[in-house]
């Protein structure tokens, strides 16, 4: 800012109300072409003359009609100011859009380095070959009427097995056998005979659920009464 600018800025009110002589009007016209601050102030004060005219008994400036800037001149100047602002906004928007495209393209190409505080993506989790809980239905062996099911729940240490079987025949104790896909077998539970021939038993095996091939129920002689297959 400079003293000349401040002096011209003080003339804005008189410019709008037509209180300037021709020399000051021409000076301010030339100044407004290059001064953003004064153009903004003029735009802000633009509605004042109309407001004053709408007031009853409002004082009328005692100026010669020829010195008042015409409505067309004021509107033209304000129009140029609005157009310049709109052009500046469009230019800024285009620049931001272009910058966004460059950033996205760089990120896609792996050219944007990660900040130290950026969260590190966790490693992909291994997809289990089976859900953590599997229900398998027993098929009776020849000459056996065994029915029921085995519910297997995967654990970090192996598998938990809940048996619910009926129509057990033969002499106990009965054994739950878990067979692995490679042929290895573990005993998961053992229980005695029941008068009803029904049994609900919970057992466990160190074989992982994904590696279990079958669950079988056998009598004390080792005869398989029924098999539940998982594969």
Summarize the topology.
Blueprint: H1 3-9, H2 12-17, H3 22-32, H4 36-45, H5 48-54, H6 71-108, E1 133-140, E2 147-154, E3 159-166, E4 174-180, E5 185-191, E6 199-205, E7 212-218, E8 224-229
Antiparallel strand pairs: 1-2, 1-8, 2-3, 3-6, 4-5, 4-7, 7-8
InterPro entries: Anti_sigma_zinc_sf (IPR041916), Znf_put (IPR027383)
Organism: Pseudosporangium ferrugineum
Protein name: Putative zinc finger protein
Fold and architecture overview:
- InterPro entries: Anti_sigma_zinc_sf (IPR041916), Znf_put (IPR027383).
- Keywords: Membrane, Transcription, Transcription regulation, Transmembrane, Transmembrane helix.
- It holds the Pfam family zf-HC2.
- There is one protein chain.
- The protein has 6 helices and 8 strands; from the N terminus they run ααααααββββββββ.
- The protein is an alpha+beta fold and 231 residues long.
- It has 2 domains: 106 residues, no CATH class; 97 residues, Immunoglobulin-like (Sandwich).
- It has an 8-stranded antiparallel β-sheet, with no helix packed on it.
């Amino acid at each position: 800012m400079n003293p000349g600018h401040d002096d011209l800025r003080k003339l804005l009110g008189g410019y709008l109300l037509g209180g300037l002589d021709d020399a000051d009007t021409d000076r301010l016209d030339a100044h407004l072409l290059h001064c953003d601050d004064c153009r903004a102030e003029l735009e802000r004060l633009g509605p004042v003359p109309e407001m004053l005219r709408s007031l009853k008994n409002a004082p009328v400036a005692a100026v010669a009609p020829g010195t008042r800037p015409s409505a067309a001149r004021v509107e033209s100047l304000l129009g140029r100011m609005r157009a310049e602002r709109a052009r500046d906004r469009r230019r800024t928007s285009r620049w931001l859009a272009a910058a966004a495209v460059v950033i996205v393209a760089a990120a896609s190409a792996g050219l944007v380095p990660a900040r130290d505080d950026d969260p590190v993506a966790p490693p992909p989790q291994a997809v289990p070959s089976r859900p953590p809980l599997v229900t398998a239905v027993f098929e009776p062996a020849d000459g056996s009427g065994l029915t029921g099911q085995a519910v297997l729940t995967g654990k970090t240490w192996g598998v938990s097995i809940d048996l619910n079987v009926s129509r057990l025949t033969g002499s106990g104790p009965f054994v739950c056998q878990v067979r692995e896909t490679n042929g290895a077998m573990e005993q998961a539970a053992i229980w005695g005979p029941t008068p009803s021939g029904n049994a609900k038993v919970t057992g466990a095996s160190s074989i992982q659920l994904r590696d279990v091939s079958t669950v079988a129920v056998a009598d004390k002689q080792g005869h398989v009464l029924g098999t539940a297959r998982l594969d």
